[in-house]
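ingest -> validate -> predict -> emit
validate: passed (alphabet ok, no gaps, 220 aa)
predict: started
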Amino acid sequence: MTTSAIPLYSYSDPKNYSHVLEMARQELACGSPEDKATRSGCLFDSNLSAFVVTMLNHSFTVSYPKGQIKYSGNDLEPHFVFQLIMLHYLSRADGTPLSHTFIPYRQLAGGGSYERAFLKRAVQPLAQVFGNCPEMLPRAAAPFGGLPYHKKGVSGTLLYLFPRVPLLYRIWAGDEELPAGANILFDSTANHYLHTEDLAAAQNVTELLVKIHRMRSLTV
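emit:
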């Protein structure tokens, strides 16, 4: 069995989000699964009646029409937040080609309203943990398929939350005059695939990166 860098559970309690999760499953059941697969860049296996979705370099199956999500190769499931956004991704994806132009969270639809919370939960921990060792971010991102990114004077680590939702993580080392800084950028087409609120799940990705970094630091 392949070890997952993404935490898995026999059951991830959705708590107050159970109704939202059920609505997402009902939405998935509407329409052609083949069309959803094409628009999202995922595979639909008609023999299994399930989508095969790559999330952060990990393969998951999403049954159709029930929308039950399992890690490929076993009967475990990811955290309910990842389940929810995966269902939303399959239903919302419209096939728009990526622009490869990256924008901050505030430039997403309605992003200005959530920016303060996003910066606090998703971005600031990056600066706090990796600001003194930016070179460690790519190492922490490796289990999630992190790739080096250098284009038009912008550098960072690129991760694919889903096949058509890249996240660009950037770190600036601090010095005597300026504190360390960080940012998470999104392809300008991101809202064609996920709502802005769902894209705040970059916070959960940050938590995974920090966890991997700390685990490795303990073994050094």
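Residues 111-130 form the longest helix (20 residues).
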